[in-house]
What does this fold into?
Amino acid sequence: MKISIKIGDIFVYAFAVVLIIISLTGMYLMGLNNDKRSVVIEVDKSDSYSIEIREGMEPVELRVDAGGGRYNTVVITYEEVRIEEANCPDQLCVKTGAIRSPGQAIVCLPHKVTVTITGVDERQSDIDDIAH
Amino acid sequence: MGRVRDMVILGLIISQALVLHLLEGFMPVLAPGMKLGLANIMTLVTLAIYGFKEAIIVVSIRSVLGSLLGGSVTAILYSLAGGILSCLVMGGLYYKYRPYFSIMGISTAGAIFHNIGQLLMASWMFGSVGILFSYLPLLTVTALGTGFFVGLASRYMIKYLQHRWFACERG
Amino acid sequence: MRKYIVRTYPIVIVICLLLLSILNGCAFGDKEKEHSKNVFALNTWINIRIYAGREGPKILDRAVQRIDEIERRMSITIEDSDVSRINSNAGIQPVKVHDDTFKVIEKALEYSRLSEGTFDITIYPIVQLWGITSEHPRVPSDEEIRERLRLVDYRKVVLNKEEGTVYLQEKGMGIDLGAIAKGYAADEVVRVLKQAGVKHALINMGGNVIVLGKKPNDQPWRIGIQDPRSDGVRRHIAVVEAVNESVVSSGDYERYIEDVYKKTGVRYHHIFDTSTGYPADSGLMATTVVAENSIDADALSTIVFVMGADKGLDIVEQLGNSEAMAVTVDKKIYTSRGFDKRLTVTDEEYEIMP
It folds into this structure.
């Protein structure tokens, strides 16, 4: 059975590449909005919380209330942000794991919660941790 | 061709699409929305054997029933959004520009727009554009891969059905 | 056409199944990736980072369980912990404790003897008096301190190995395992991780760092030493590379009475000199000890801080199980023999003295 590539197919692949470039640019631009690296948590279009990630801050644990007893527990440390646990049916938001850089996001579809990192990444990366 | 025969065959196609949709649910998911899109094989087949109207019907029923059977009501919206947009794009390409595309290309385009449809719906529901940009790169890359194989499978099916079951070919 | 399809179908199905199983394996693969967890325990934030396959989360849970267990036994704030029961039975009767607690107290007393009483877990009455970690810390009077100082004496702790009991001889005595429990917990976490087959890990227990193996890219872990005068900002003044060891710092910058500091510039911090009952005043801002076991590093970093650069580093060199550095208030760094070669100073205001 012969498989031949037609000209339209090249179009499709090129289009895909363009899409990827546009979204990566979008992610980068979103990261340039603020000065300080922050975590923005949005709940169902209505609520939006922004927390600045500062050097030397103690980990912050937030219980985001998505209404009707639904919640997501967001843990923010200087190095990363993740949804530690939630009572949503698919647990995809927990499985997604941690995000670190501006532009990345974690989404909980059933609860309509998004956790995004915005701002500029200013961390020094030459050490793994600090003894104090 | 008898109308009854058409209804029966479309019914079979829809149930086939449902089975494929549900089977996919057992696959491991790396990111929300990342799936093989096997049900789209049936969409493409319907486009080829019947017509645009029938394809939309197949997609809609598959989305609604498939989501309900899968256990989630909210999934209906996302599935519909992705499925219909993908059907529109595939239909457009198939009927207007068929000479320029292989079936694999059309189904890849369909897969890409299926993702776009779902992400657009999610962005609208959440009121946040960030989602679109975050997931699009990864999902598009996987769409390129899955789209190709879905197209390959569709092509086999279409060829077989056209020769064995349908003397005439629509569209 | 029909024959053609009937013949190829089985092959196609087999190929698809193979692909599916490969995909499945890749998606959940035992490919190692980073798993990390943050918990609040032992009065501080603990971060555990491991590299493991899909059992990563389970391994982390096991580690946290062990930490919780240790906390239940050694916490001074949990009412029926071993330590609390020992303290409430001071001068009354011996208390049976878990092996964990016994081991830690035994080790602590060993260090008390080695440091001639500089390290002393019976310092608790003094800690309570100053209330540094409570809501209302204050500077107590000389008499108050002198009175409580009588109760600080590690020789009055009686251990009975057969019975597994601990007895504080005088009423009013109390022990606080804070200066050594984190070290023990860190070593235990490493033990749990090793048992589970983890080859690369980094654990930070409220500032006490311990690493397992090297980084996944086969490079040693790079651990920064906290700037003692950065006013709470997490930044480092030096870096030490570590493989399979623990890096622990003690200093006057983590806990001290803030308002007194703001008014007078004097730091009443939480590391007490057991001979005076006052915060240690040995001319040091911070000390760091690197040892294979975190429990040793934990105890020694306190000992070096209280004894001062000369005597403290001497003891470290004599013991031979660790290396250390001491930072004086005028930003000079003194190290135990050979440690200066491991240290890279990154802040030019600090310099290593020969």
